[in-house]
């Protein structure tokens, strides 16, 4: 025993003479204390006492300690016995590490000149190849659809107490420049069993749960692998049925599997359990495997050390889950597919999903902004992603809450239609086969912009945004949008569409019919020319009176002409006869002509007032119209005068704003200069810090190696001491017998 004490003092003095940082020396002392307590304790359990003043409930974050006093100070795994290649005569060659492509659509390509590892053996089990992770993620053609999967998982935790989901970005600690995604909620978290179910392929507990969209057990894997090559998950769960609180960390890394040429998908995980306010490792009867998993996670994680990784648990509350997605994918131009710079409170997409013309149109037409921006803006898409949000549940995007938006607020002239599909073998009797359809014009429809489509929800989740069912040539159908929740249609695996079935085809045909009927009936109300069906309806109403009016008036005009023309002819004829005869008397014909002339004059006198009356009315209408126009002109002049006065005020305000703008720009330049200086100084400090951290890690690794060697020496010495004690006891027994 004295020999061991002298050996410890010698080793500790040797390490102290190296002028090392106090952190490794503290670890060394803690290890010696732990070894001494393990040799003296009769019950080999937790060797560290509870931290002073700490409690399990109501304590501050980060106050809980790990079983060995420090998360970096977990018991060191003994090195395994390795065969020296020099003894076997085999020459070892370091394998050439493959590099994963940073572009998503090229990451699944395998080089033909690289021979894949052999998987044949006596084990007949079929394994999941790592490339399946990438192939499975290609179901998400649209990156924002992958975000929706992660939001769905957090929203489903509202029944377990979740009140928010926070989507944010941060910087990778190892390289100090690349961006990472963080999706965090305060739901119920996952215990170790459920955590492994989540990381498994094809397992889902939501298949038969009401009001949940998930049913394939594929969303988490496809969404994380679509956004980035690697993901690390931290989760904490309260113990069920009075059990202890647990926390777990697992890594789903395509980079690790690809570059290490794994032949099957491996997801390393480690678990902890809170016992007496200390986090104790749950090794599941395989301590070496637990340490191997922890070493793999730390090595391939985005964190610089094991301590930095364990610090992520402090961000969780009593329960919750945090997903960190790193090594994000690049686009075809080598730029990051996700845009974090354009809007500090949004995550946008680059490439074909971004249309600058639509972005400018969204500023001019605010009631149509979701149609124009949802393809590239996560904030716009998330605001209409759910038909309803649970009470007190918030979606927070980069520090700012996403305002939930109902598309009904963008509609006008709405009509309600009850849609009930025809019963078929695809529908079960338990399903709600009736759906309420809202159809109308978007409020910006009078501007004649090309916006149309039906927004189809399934169990509160938007599956088909602005589904265009009528692709008409020209402007037919523009401005018509609809809202429908169809729980009887089966969504596809990526939840960006529905399964192509006969039922979906019938729904599409019915929506097409509804849109055509609504458009032809009401398109003239927003400024379009009436369509063919509307023209036929109008001709049947307006053309019939127009054809009847000439028919009523025409006989009167003909009777007048027939009564007038014979009288004039007869008069001329009788006058001619009278001139020829030179008679003094009046003939019967002359008498008749006189009577006819009198009748003609009488009819003329009767018709003249009827002709003068419309003229008077026309003159009166002209006077009224002239007075109305003059009053309108006066009011217009007054309005023009008011506008001119307001324009002068606006001009003065513009001058003041320009002056203020100049002052603000000068202040902004000064602030930017100060900010640049601060960033330079911060970068210098970070460089020094990284350099110091690297030196510390190297020193710590060297000390760990020496400690392992010391352990081996101590084991050897213990064996010798035991042998000496046995010899001493044997000698005593021999001596006693001799006496």
UniProtKB/TrEMBL annotation:
Top-level taxon of the source organism: Eukaryota
UniProt keyword annotation of Nuclease present: yes
Cofactor(s) for this UniProt protein: Mg(2+); Mn(2+)
Keyword Nucleus: yes
Residues covered by region (Disordered): 38-118, 538-576
Bias kind Basic and acidic residues: ranges: 107-117
Main location: nucleus
Biased composition (Polar residues): 38-49, 561-570
Residue ranges of coiled coil: none
Alphabetically ordered keywords of this record: Chromatin regulator, Coiled coil, DNA damage, DNA repair, Endonuclease, Hydrolase, Nuclease, Nucleus, RNA-mediated gene silencing
Similarity section: Belongs to the MORC ATPase protein family.
InterPro entries in UniProt: HATPase_C_sf, MORC_ATPase, Morc_S5
Compartment(s) where it occurs, according to its Swiss-Prot or TrEMBL record: Nucleus
Organism of origin: Brassica napus
Domain Morc S5 positions: 376-519
Official protein name in the record: Morc S5 domain-containing protein
């Amino acid at each position: 025993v004295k020999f061991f004490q002298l050996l410890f003092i010698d080793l500790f003095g040797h390490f102290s003479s190296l002028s090392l940082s106090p952190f490794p020396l503290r670890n060394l002392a803690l290890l010696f204390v732990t070894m001494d307590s393990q040799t003296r304790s009769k019950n080999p359990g937790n060797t560290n006492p509870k931290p002073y003043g700490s409690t399990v409930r109501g304590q501050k974050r980060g106050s809980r300690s790990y079983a060995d006093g420090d998360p970096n100070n977990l018991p060191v795994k003994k090195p395994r016995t390795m065969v020296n290649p020099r003894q076997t005569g085999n020459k070892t060659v370091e394998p050439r590490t493959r590099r994963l492509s940073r572009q998503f659509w090229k990451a699944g390509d395998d080089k033909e000149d690289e021979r894949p590892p052999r998987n044949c053996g006596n084990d007949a089990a079929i394994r999941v190849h790592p490339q399946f992770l990438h192939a499975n993620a290609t179901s998400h053609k649209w990156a924002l659809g992958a975000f929706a999967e992660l939001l769905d998982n957090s929203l489903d935790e509202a029944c377990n107490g979740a009140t928010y989901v926070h989507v944010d970005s941060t910087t990778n600690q190892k390289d100090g420049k690349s961006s990472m995604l963080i999706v965090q909620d305060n739901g119920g978290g996952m215990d170790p069993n459920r955590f492994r179910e989540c990381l498994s392929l094809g397992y889902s507990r939501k298949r038969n749960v009401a009001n949940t969209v998930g049913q394939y057990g594929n969303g988490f894997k496809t969404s994380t692998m679509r956004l980035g090559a690697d993901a690390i998950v931290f989760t904490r769960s309260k113990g069920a049925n009075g059990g202890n609180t647990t926390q777990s960390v697992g890594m789903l890394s395509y980079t690790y599997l690809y570059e290490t040429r794994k032949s099957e998908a491996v997801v390393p995980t480690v678990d902890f359990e809170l016992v007496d306010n200390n986090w104790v490792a749950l090794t599941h009867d395989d301590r070496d495997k637990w340490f191997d998993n922890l070493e793999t996670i730390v090595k391939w994680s985005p964190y610089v050390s094991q301590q930095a990784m364990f610090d992520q648990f402090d961000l969780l509350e009593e329960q919750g889950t945090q997903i960190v997605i790193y090594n994000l994918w690049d686009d075809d131009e080598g730029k990051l597919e996700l845009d974090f710079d354009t809007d500090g409170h949004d995550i946008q997409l680059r490439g074909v999903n971004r249309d600058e013309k639509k972005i400018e149109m969204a500023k001019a037409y605010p009631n149509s902004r979701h149609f124009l921006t949802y393809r590239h803006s996560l904030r716009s898409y998330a605001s209409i992603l759910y038909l309803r949000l649970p009470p007190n549940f918030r979606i927070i995007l980069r520090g700012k809450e996403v305002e939930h938006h109902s598309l009904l607020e963008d509609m006008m002239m709405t009509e309600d239609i009850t849609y009930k599909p025809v019963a078929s073998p695809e529908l079960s009797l338990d399903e709600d086969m009736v759906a309420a359809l809202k159809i109308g014009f978007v409020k910006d429809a009078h501007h004649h912009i090309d916006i149309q489509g039906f927004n189809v929800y399934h169990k509160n989740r938007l599956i088909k945004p602005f589904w265009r069912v009528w692709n008409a040539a020209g402007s037919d159908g523009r401005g018509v949008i609809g809202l429908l929740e169809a729980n009887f249609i089966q969504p596809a695996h990526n939840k960006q569409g529905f399964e192509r079935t006969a039922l979906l085809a019938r729904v599409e045909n019915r929506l097409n019919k509804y849109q055509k009927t609504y458009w032809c009936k009401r398109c003239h109300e927003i400024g379009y020319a009436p369509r063919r069906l509307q023209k036929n309806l109008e001709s049947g109403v307006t053309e019939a009176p127009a054809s009847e009016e000439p028919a009523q008036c025409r006989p009167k005009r003909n009777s007048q002409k027939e009564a007038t023309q014979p009288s004039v002819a007869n008069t001329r004829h009788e006058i001619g006869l009278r001139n020829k005869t030179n008679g003094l008397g009046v003939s019967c014909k002359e008498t008749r002509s006189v009577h006819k002339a009198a009748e003609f004059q009488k009819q003329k006198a009767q018709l003249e007032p009827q002709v003068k009356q419309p003229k008077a009315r026309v003159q009166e209408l002209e006077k009224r119209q002239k007075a109305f126009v003059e009053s309108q002109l006066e009011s217009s002049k007054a309005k023009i005068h008011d506008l001119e006065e307001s324009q002068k005020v606006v001009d003065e305000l513009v001058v003041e704003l320009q002056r203020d703008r100049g002052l603000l720009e000068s202040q902004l330049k000064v602030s930017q200069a100060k900010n640049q200086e601060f960033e330079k100084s911060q970068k210098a400090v970070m460089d020094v810090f990284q350099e110091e951290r690297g030196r510390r890690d190297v020193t710590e690794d060297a000390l760990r190696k020496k400690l392992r060697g010391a352990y081996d020496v101590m084991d050897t010495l213990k064996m010798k001491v035991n042998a000496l004690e046995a010899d001493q006891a044997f000698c005593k027994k021999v001596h006693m017998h001799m006496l």
